[in-house]
Write a structure and sequence with these properties.
mainly alpha; 2 helices; about 80% helix
């Protein structure tokens, strides 16, 4: 006989809240990016490149540390 697991005792409600918050932040960021492209196209692409390289650097750095480990 399987034991029943209370929904309140699992991590699922917390994950649902985090997922909803991440969706809201993502949509807001997308809207701000579209506004940035409309207002100043050159500045948007320069800023996008800097942000991309920053996130890419963090990812590659983490991969490097994982490979050394």
């Amino acid at each position: 006989m399987m034991a029943t697991i209370d929904r309140e005792l699992t991590v699922q409600p917390v994950l649902e809240r985090v997922q909803r918050l991440a969706l809201i932040v993502g949509v807001a960021g997308l809207l701000l990016s579209v506004i940035g492209v409309i207002v100043d196209r050159a500045q948007f692409f320069q800023s996008y490149l800097v942000a991309f390289l920053f996130v890419f650097g963090l990812s590659v750095g983490g991969l490097g540390f994982s490979m050394v480990h």
